[in-house]
């Protein structure tokens, strides 16, 4: 078999293996060495291929697709620094448990480490951030090596999905010539396994005797809480609502828990706990005897402070797979089980609520008080970042994605986004908490056709404007709510703000640019909202418009901190009075 036929059949069986294992989307970063992979994916109709010119953007776009579709997505790039540009998204995928199949084309072995152009060390280049690395063999056309290519592709998907999901890395050396020949006979019938995904993964389940012991332990306590941090299972809300009802415990729901939106019962959901727990006196008054946590550690820093100050409550963390996510440094009892099934299973064993009704009612009353104060709008407040979240939450489309930037946007969502019956998936890049790739990841969540609304600050938006190109090219629906306070607003709340000699240059970092020309360059519709009426009207119009829309809200950093602190102070005073009565 001559070189071109060998290359073509090897790549075909490899790509077919990816599809047979469940990959439906491939994101391609253009380049020469990756030509056989890219062209084969484009030729193979069972896989959707996306072309994204900027490698960093491409990787975060793939991460967004994988997040929304809950399945592995493959990434393809050429050799050299192209692969290095995937690194930030690989790190994010690792910490946020998103399955990515990273396929880096490489020079053949004889051109490595000899000064050949566009040849860097790609062996294990992502280190501990991938679940599996393999340097693929050079293409061969024997039946055995074709099976090897096919089964290695399937194994890559399997490794990405086993246990906690995450990225894997296959490095693929290729010799020239690189152009495949798709006129070959029987090109897509060279493997024997055409029966769909050859992977079956079961879920963990707690044993009955352990469950009975847990119920007996919990029933000794009268004050407890259920906590749900960032996680992506939209079915968990109903299960936790059932568990909360059976135990009588309040549910502290992080904005990324998928518990603040949906049609399940939210009667016991406490969405304002971050504002409630900001005051030390209130934290000292509330002393839970048990905590059951699902998902990752919540975003809320006041919750973290409160947790560290508690007098050793019985603390249960439910994890679907192995892993340790307890940054507070407190003693925990970890249960490895499928979270929704465990919540139903535990609730079924509880015959009647054992949590003191007064405890639950105290939390519900505090939540109502905090919500009323946080949602109250006064004319002198003007345009501000908190009420941008309130107004936005009211007009978000049903069955849509709400993507949230890091720094201040996610914290404002934590404070001001209340429960809603609409089905809205709330997502963010909270694995590594970075500002890079947020635009691209948000666009990726809309690849399947869902409308997407992105809330983002001006620095994060500027950092990833290249990501807008694929939205333009593919006419994907994205509404961006751009909070422009001309710099890094999060630093205004940190000690750096007390050092004015260096603050603006090193931390405030004002951009001083107009975003409208950039938005229009990417084919988007630009709006500038100067009132809440304009803001909601523009949002409604953008959600009814196909393609990219950006609604800019200009705020002032020096007004933002007093606004937030006044809100939190009003919550503190009202709740302290409430607890004393």
From TrEMBL:
This protein's name: 2-succinyl-5-enolpyruvyl-6-hydroxy-3-cyclohexene-1-carboxylate synthase
Any GO BP: menaquinone biosynthetic process
Pfam families associated with the record: TPP_enzyme_C, TPP_enzyme_M_2, TPP_enzyme_N
Reaction(s) this enzyme catalyzes, per UniProt: isochorismate + 2-oxoglutarate + H(+) = 5-enolpyruvoyl-6-hydroxy-2-succinyl-cyclohex-3-ene-1-carboxylate + CO2
Organism (species): Thalassobacillus cyri
Record's keyword annotation contains Transferase: yes
UniProt cross-references to NCBIfam families, sorted A to Z: menD
Thiamine pyrophosphate enzyme TPP-binding domain location: 439-553
Domain Menaquinone biosynthesis protein MenD middle: 220-403
């Amino acid at each position: 078999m001559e070189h071109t036929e060998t290359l073509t059949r090897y790549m075909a069986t490899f790509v077919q293996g990816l599809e047979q294992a469940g990959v439906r989307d491939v994101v391609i970063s253009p380049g020469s060495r990756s030509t056989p992979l890219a062209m084969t994916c484009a030729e193979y109709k069972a896989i959707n291929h996306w072309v994204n010119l900027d490698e960093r953007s491409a990787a975060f776009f793939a991460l967004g697709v994988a997040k929304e579709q809950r399945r592995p997505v493959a990434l393809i790039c050429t050799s050299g620094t192209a692969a290095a540009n995937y690194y930030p998204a690989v790190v994010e995928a690792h910490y946020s448990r998103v399955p990515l199949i990273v396929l880096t084309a490489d020079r053949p072995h004889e051109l490595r480490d000899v000064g050949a152009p566009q040849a860097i060390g790609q062996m294990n280049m992502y280190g501990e951030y991938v679940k599996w690395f393999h340097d693929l063999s050079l293409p061969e056309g024997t039946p055995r090596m074709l099976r090897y290519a096919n089964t290695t592709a399937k194994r890559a998907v399997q490794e990405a999905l086993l246990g906690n999901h995450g990225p894997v890395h296959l490095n693929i050396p290729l010799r020239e010539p690189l152009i495949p020949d798709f006129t070959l006979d029987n090109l897509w019938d060279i493997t024997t396994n055409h029966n769909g995904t050859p992977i079956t993964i079961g879920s963990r389940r707690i044993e009955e005797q352990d469950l009975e012991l847990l119920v007996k332990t919990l029933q000794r306590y009268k004050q407890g809480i259920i906590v749900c941090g960032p996680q992506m299972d939209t079915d968990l809300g109903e299960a936790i609502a059932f568990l909360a009802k059976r135990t009588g415990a309040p549910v502290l729901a992080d904005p990324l828990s998928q518990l603040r939106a949906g049609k399940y019962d939210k009667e016991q959901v406490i969405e304002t706990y971050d504002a409630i727990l900001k005051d030390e006196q209130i934290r000292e008054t509330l002393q839970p005897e048990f905590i059951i946590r699902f998902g990752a550690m919540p975003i809320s820093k006041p919750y973290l402070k409160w947790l560290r100050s508690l007098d050793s409550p019985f603390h249960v963390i439910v994890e679907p797979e192995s892993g340790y996510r307890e940054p507070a440094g407190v003693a925990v009892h970890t249960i490895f089980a499928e979270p929704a099934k465990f919540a139903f299973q535990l609730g079924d064993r509880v015959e009647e609520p054992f949590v003191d009704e007064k405890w639950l009612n105290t939390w519900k009353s505090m939540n109502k008080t905090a919500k009323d104060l946080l949602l109250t709008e006064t004319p002198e407040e003007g345009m501000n970042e908190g009420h941008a979240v309130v107004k936005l939450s009211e007009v978000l489309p049903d069955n849509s994605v709400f993507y949230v930037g890091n720094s201040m946007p996610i914290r404002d969502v934590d404070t001001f986004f209340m429960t809603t019956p609409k089905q809205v998936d709330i997502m963010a890049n909270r694995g590594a908490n970075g500002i890079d790739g947020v635009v691209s990841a948000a666009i990726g969540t809309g690849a399947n056709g869902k409308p997407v609304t992105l809330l983002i600050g001006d620095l994060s938006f500027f950092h990833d404007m290249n990501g807008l190109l694929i939205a333009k090219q593919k006419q994907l629906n994205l509404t961006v709510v751009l909070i422009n306070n001309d710099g890094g607003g999060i630093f205004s709340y940190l000690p750096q703000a007390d050092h004015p000699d260096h603050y603006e240059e090193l931390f405030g970092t004002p951009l001083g640019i107009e975003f409208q020309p950039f938005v229009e360059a990417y084919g988007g519709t630009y709006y500038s909202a100067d009132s809440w009426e304009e803001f909601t009207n523009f949002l409604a119009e953008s959600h009814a418009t196909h393609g990219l829309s950006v609604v800019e809200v200009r705020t002032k950093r020096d007004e933002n901190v007093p606004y937030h602190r006044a809100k939190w102070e009003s919550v503190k005073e009202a709740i302290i009075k409430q607890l004393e009565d």
